[in-house]
């Protein structure tokens, strides 16, 4: 389960930032997880809830933005937005698509006190 490792690394980042900025609690964490990332947002929420117990993150809200995937159609050369990796090109119906985005995971922001 990749989500547990992602959550563990997220907590390490927050701890490092806490040492630099000296905040007490985290109220909200916002992530961007592309739809092609192979991460399950609900599994990540569950892991976040488990890992945050008895830490400065306990009770924090985890917000997850899920931008659509992007690809270039190798048939019509269009840059298209896709809901999933198996979608056909919405411009020409072609199936030869080269993914160009949507597999990212980014830590966007956090709200602290």
Write the layout of secondary structure elements.
Elements lengths: L1 H20 L4 E8 L7 H12 L8 E5 L3 E5 L5 E4 L14 E5 L3 E8 L1
Parallel strand pairs: 1-2
Antiparallel strand pairs: 1-6, 3-4, 3-5
What is the CATH topology classification name?
Answer: hypothetical protein PF0899 fold
The whole-angstrom Rg is 18 Å
Shape: elongated
Structural class: alpha+beta
Distance between the termini: 31 Å
Largest sheet: 3 strands, mixed
Query: Per CATH, which architecture?
Result: 2-Layer Sandwich
Query: So how many helices?
Result: 2
In total, how many domains does the architecture comprise? Answer: 1
Average predicted confidence as pLDDT: 93
Overall CATH class: Alpha Beta
Helix content: 25-40%
Question: What is the tally of beta strands?
Answer: 6
**What portion of the residues fall into strands of 2 or more residues?**
25-35%
Strand order within the widest sheet?
2-1-6
Helix-strand string: HEHEEEEE
Low-confidence runs of at least 5 consecutive residues? none
């Amino acid at each position: 389960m990749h989500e547990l490792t992602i959550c563990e690394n997220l907590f390490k980042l927050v701890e490092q930032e806490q040492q630099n900025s000296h905040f007490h609690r985290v109220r909200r964490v916002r992530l961007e997880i592309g739809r092609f990332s192979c991460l399950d947002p609900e599994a990540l929420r569950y892991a976040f809830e488990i890992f945050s117990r008895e830490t400065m993150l306990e009770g924090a809200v985890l917000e997850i933005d899920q931008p659509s995937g992007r690809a270039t159609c190798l048939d019509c050369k269009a840059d298209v937005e896709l809901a999933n990796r198996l979608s056909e090109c919405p411009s020409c119906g072609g199936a030869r698509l080269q993914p160009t985005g949507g597999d990212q995971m980014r830590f966007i922001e956090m709200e602290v006190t």
